[in-house]
Give the backbone structure.
Amino acid sequence: MSNRRSFLSKFTALTATVVAAPFLAISNAINPQKGSNQDSASTSAVKEKNMSIIKRIKPLGFTWETADPFLFCVHHEDKYPKGNDAMGPDTSHFSGRHLGDDFIIKDGFRMYHGKTVPGFPGHPHRGFETITVVREGLVDHADSLGAAGRYGDGDVQWMTAGKGVQHSEMFPLIHKDKENPMELFQIWLNLPKANKMVEPHFKMLWKEMIPNENHVDANNKKTTVEVISGALKGTASPTTPPDSWAAKTENEVAVWNILMEPGAAYTIPKASAGINRTIYFYEGNELKLAGEQIPKYNSVTVKSDESIDLLAGKDAVSILILQGRPINEEVIKYGPFVMNTKEEIQQAFDDYHETGYGGWPWEKYDQVHDRSKGRFAKHADGSIEEKG
């Protein structure tokens, strides 16, 4: 009980916030700049149309602001060194760190809540879903249902917390002879009130399952879109967990990772009106969106029912897109719990303190799997997926 309370206190202090729906308001549209007297009427009209597509441009921080139905997104990028026998960084890297609460980059990486292995030891969730997109590195999963896994290097884990689950997400440094770089996104997707207390569930979207939409432009430049959720130009993602807001196609939930070669051009097709769509320019130096130069490491909130023209600059560009129909319910978010009322948040705390959401069946809260273990998933029903 004391371990649960201690970690919950730290986690809550880090993430606590209370927001009423709609979850995040979109700021006023950016006013188009006036052209010079020499601008043609047609050029001005195009300029005005392009700027009307863009609602807001905002720099990205450690956590990324999102719009309903998403709750937030975090971009983790850590240059972990060679691993020691315990699959953590060599002890020489611990000097000056606040182990157990280390969120400041030092020597190129953070330990987060880990004390030996970086990552997030066992902690609870209720009322929403986590989508963990691992671009590089490995994650070791364990949870209160007895499920476990190791995934990474292109894999995605989609977990419905529902009525409550504890899980750990550790980043084992399995390589002792070379560095262990890690890059991942964790995206929180809300559940509607009707589904907040469903049974917990997790699903693996292995990299071999995730389809790509490939495009070659008129200049023979390639764009690849990883279709993690939703459908894009006839390419459909794997199915989501059954109780997800994304499970209903009319909600148009999309998670797309776009990789553009230098100089590549690509057009994102329009969605329906009333869909929230945010574009995150997270890698590269130059990107034009709807004809406007976007500063690097910025988000762009755009009008959903217009197609969006993208043009990469002289370097490769990476973009994450999150879109979906808003749930439009009141959101009370406090630490690891996301509900609709303050009373439901208090009940989530009470239930967790009383039951531990099923307890913790593992030897350690920072559970990691054997160094020699490949990618795998063990589900709560005992079924096992081995990916090697």
In short: Confidence is low (pLDDT under 50) at residues 13-48. The first strand starts at residue 54 and ends at 59. The longest helix spans residues 2-15. The two ends are 36 Å apart (CA to CA).
